[in-house]
């Protein structure tokens, strides 16, 4: 799995989520499965199958978080003091030949903010934007050809 860049807050939130899922979550789902087993025939027991499905999804999330944390690089920069595009900042960009600007959170999807789309630093656009400052123009290869964008603003 590739490296994931996370802010300290996101890293700690994921650690708390992992701890909760591996302790409380596993105990709760085991209790639900046990209660469903007590209802009888497992072949036609909807409660049992639903609980096992929930358990599978929870275990998949546990493995996903473990992999993210194992491959995480933590950035401690203060987004309000950043003058270049770095993980953890909100960046506004404008495509060449357009007047409209678009705001994105630059970082991991695990740090998604309400109402703001995410640009991964490993995506073609993310790689082009990384380290750029307001006023800089960057180019990146998109499926439809090379696109050019301007970094308009960094921060909220």
UniProtKB/TrEMBL annotation:
<keyword id="KW-0238">DNA-binding</keyword>
<dbReference type="InterPro" id="IPR001437">
    <property type="entry name" value="Tscrpt_elong_fac_GreA/B_C"/>
</dbReference>
<protein>
    <recommendedName>
        <fullName>Transcription elongation factor GreA</fullName>
    </recommendedName>
</protein>
<comment type="similarity">
    <text>Belongs to the GreA/GreB family.</text>
</comment>
<keyword id="KW-0805">Transcription regulation</keyword>
<comment type="function">
    <text>Necessary for efficient RNA polymerase transcription elongation past template-encoded arresting sites. The arresting sites in DNA have the property of trapping a certain fraction of elongating RNA polymerases that pass through, resulting in locked ternary complexes. Cleavage of the nascent transcript by cleavage factors such as GreA or GreB allows the resumption of elongation from the new 3'terminus. GreA releases sequences of 2 to 3 nucleotides.</text>
</comment>
<dbReference type="GO" id="GO:0003677">
    <property type="term" value="F:DNA binding"/>
</dbReference>
<keyword id="KW-0804">Transcription</keyword>
<dbReference type="InterPro" id="IPR023459">
    <property type="entry name" value="Tscrpt_elong_fac_GreA/B_fam"/>
</dbReference>
<keyword id="KW-0648">Protein biosynthesis</keyword>
<dbReference type="Pfam" id="PF01272">
    <property type="entry name" value="GreA_GreB"/>
</dbReference>
<keyword id="KW-0251">Elongation factor</keyword>
<feature type="domain" description="Transcription elongation factor GreA/GreB C-terminal">
    <location>
        <begin position="82"/>
        <end position="154"/>
    </location>
</feature>
<dbReference type="InterPro" id="IPR036805">
    <property type="entry name" value="Tscrpt_elong_fac_GreA/B_N_sf"/>
</dbReference>
<dbReference type="GO" id="GO:0070063">
    <property type="term" value="F:RNA polymerase binding"/>
</dbReference>
<dbReference type="InterPro" id="IPR036953">
    <property type="entry name" value="GreA/GreB_C_sf"/>
</dbReference>
<dbReference type="InterPro" id="IPR006359">
    <property type="entry name" value="Tscrpt_elong_fac_GreA"/>
</dbReference>
<dbReference type="InterPro" id="IPR022691">
    <property type="entry name" value="Tscrpt_elong_fac_GreA/B_N"/>
</dbReference>
<dbReference type="GO" id="GO:0006354">
    <property type="term" value="P:DNA-templated transcription elongation"/>
</dbReference>
<dbReference type="GO" id="GO:0003746">
    <property type="term" value="F:translation elongation factor activity"/>
</dbReference>
<dbReference type="GO" id="GO:0032784">
    <property type="term" value="P:regulation of DNA-templated transcription elongation"/>
</dbReference>
<dbReference type="InterPro" id="IPR018151">
    <property type="entry name" value="TF_GreA/GreB_CS"/>
</dbReference>
<dbReference type="Pfam" id="PF03449">
    <property type="entry name" value="GreA_GreB_N"/>
</dbReference>
<dbReference type="InterPro" id="IPR028624">
    <property type="entry name" value="Tscrpt_elong_fac_GreA/B"/>
</dbReference>
<feature type="domain" description="Transcription elongation factor GreA/GreB N-terminal">
    <location>
        <begin position="5"/>
        <end position="74"/>
    </location>
</feature>
């Amino acid at each position: 799995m590739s490296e994931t860049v996370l802010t300290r807050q996101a890293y700690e939130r994921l650690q708390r989520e992992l701890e909760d899922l591996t302790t409380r979550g596993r105990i709760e789902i085991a209790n639900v499965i046990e209660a469903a087993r007590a209802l009888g025939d497992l072949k036609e027991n909807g409660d049992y199958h639903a609980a096992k499905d929930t358990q599978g999804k929870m275990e998949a999330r546990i493995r996903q978080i473990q992999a993210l944390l194992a491959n995480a690089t933590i950035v401690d920069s203060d987004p309000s003091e950043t003058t270049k595009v770095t993980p953890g900042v909100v960046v506004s960009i404008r495509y060449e030949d357009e007047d409209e600007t678009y705001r994105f959170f630059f970082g991991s999807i695990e740090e998604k903010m309400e109402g703001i789309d995410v640009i991964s630093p490993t995506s073609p656009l993310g790689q082009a934007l990384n380290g750029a400052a307001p006023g800089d123009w960057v180019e990146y290869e998109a499926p439809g050809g090379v696109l050019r964008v301007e970094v308009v603003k960094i921060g909220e």
